[in-house]
Every structure is written in C-alpha cells, then in structure tokens.
Amino acid sequence: MDDSALRLLSDVSDDKSTDANEALSQWHDLTDEDLFVLTREGERDAFRLLVERLEGKAVHVAQSYVRSLEIAREIVQEAFLKVYDTRNRFDPKLSFQAWYFRILRNHAIDRVRRMAPGTPGSTSELVGDYETTSQGPLHQASRAERLEMVRATLESLPMQSRQVLTLREFQSMSCSEIGEEIGATPGTVRWRLHNARKLFRQQWERSFGSESSGGAL
Predict the structure, then answer these.
(1) Closest by CA position to 52, among listed 63, 44, 41
(2) Which of 92, 103, 147, 190 has the fewest CB neighbours in a 10 Å radius?
(3) What is the domain count for the chain?
(4) Please, are residues 149 and 206 in contact by the beta-carbon 8 Å criterion?
(5) 217 belongs to a structural domain
C-alpha cells in the first residue's frame, strides 16, 4: 500500500490552503478521466477533487452491501487507495467511475464474505427498517420479529440476488441505476430481479409458510 495515498486521503477534508483551493477551482469543470490523468502526472489535488466528487455516492453504494456507515466508509477508502495504487493501469479512454465502482463493489463483496453472520454491519443488517405487511398467521408477530424474518430470508439468498433486491427495494434504484452500479444492462438487471424475487418467495414460504408471504417483497 502506498503510504502517500493514505496521507492523501486523510488530507482531503483538511487541506484548505489557497493553492489547493485555486487548483480545485481551476479543475472543477474537468471530467473524472481528465482529473485522473492529472493524478497520474503527480497532481495530488486532482485526486482530492475526485474523492470529493465521488465519496458520497460511493458510501451510498457501499452501504447497499453493509449497513454500518463506518464499515462502508472503510470500504470506500480501500477502493480509493486501490485505484491510486494502480493508477498507471487506467485507460483514460474508459470511464473512471465505472472502473472505480467496479473496484468498490469487489471490496464490498470481499468484506461481506469475511464477516461472520450477526456481526454489526454484516448482510443481516442490510434491510434496515424494512417491515413486512404479512396478512397470514404471522401478522401478530412484533415488528422486530417480522424484520428479523425478512433479514433471515435475504441472508439465505445468493449474493447476486441479495444485491439486486437490496438496491431495488431498499435503495429505490431504477434498473438503469442498478445496472450502472453492478456493471450489467437494464435487461439483465430486470431478469436478475425477477429471479431474486422468486427465490425470496420460495425461501420465505419454506421458512414461514405460504400464507405468510404476502407483501414480504
């Protein structure tokens, strides 16, 4: 890991120097790709601007995998460090955001796989405040119990299915937006969502009975 990259990221929000502000103002209209070319040429402020541009969206994406904001921010930083360390491999003819978010997703998936079930911020926390609206025999279960049922069902799904359901149902993203996040066409996203919902219903019914599945997803 490049120590200069670590220092650079830690300085992003702290550098208020006149020179830095002038550079950021001068480069404000540049594309992400142009900024990263400048980064490769040694312009640290260009990378700072890239981080500032993408950090909010990146944290949002990371939290679609892990609910913990702290862990999501760690994943985002790891991904920024990765692109900085491998900056000379980037092809400026390609989309920088597509490259960065692919790396981010890979880091997020790796983190989820390393985390034991039940660990704060693990996939069992992905559903957030989601609440089922079951009309079956489980309708008298407490909100916390119903929430845990949904969490358990999502946890049992394959990573790909859990990913698209989370982005669609809990992040309210369109198929096009999901496609941009996971590197797939909108048509592929719709197909994955169809299969993910089918798997969810099947798993729900196996666990809790067919009468309790209404409105779960």
Answers:
(1) 44
(2) 92
(3) 2
(4) no
(5) no
Contacts of residue 216, defined as CB under 8 A and 6 or more positions apart, other chains included, come to 132, 134, 150, 153, 200, 201, 204
Q: Quick one: CA torsion of 77, 81, 83, 87, rounded to 10 degrees?
A: 150
18 shares its domain with 103: yes
Supply the pLDDT for residue 168: 80
94 and 192 fall within a common domain: no
Q: What is the CATH number of the domain that holds 100?
A: 1.10.1740.10
pTM above 0.90, yes or no: no
Predicted confidence at residue 134, as pLDDT, reads: 42
Tell me the two tokens of residue 127.
């559903």
Regions in the chain scoring below 70 on pLDDT: 1-25, 114-144, 147, 171, 210-217
pLDDT of residue 186: 84
Identify the domain containing residue 163 by its residue range: 126-212
Of 166, 190, 169, residue with least CA distance to 179? 190
Decide: 150 and 160 in contact? Cβ < 8 Å: no
55 located within any domain: yes
What are 77's two structure tokens? 């930083």
Alpha carbon of 216 to those of 62, 129, 139: distances in Å?
24, 13, 12
The counts of H helices and E strands in the chain are: 10, 0
Number of Cβ within 10 Å of residue 95's Cβ equals 15
pLDDT of residue 50: 92
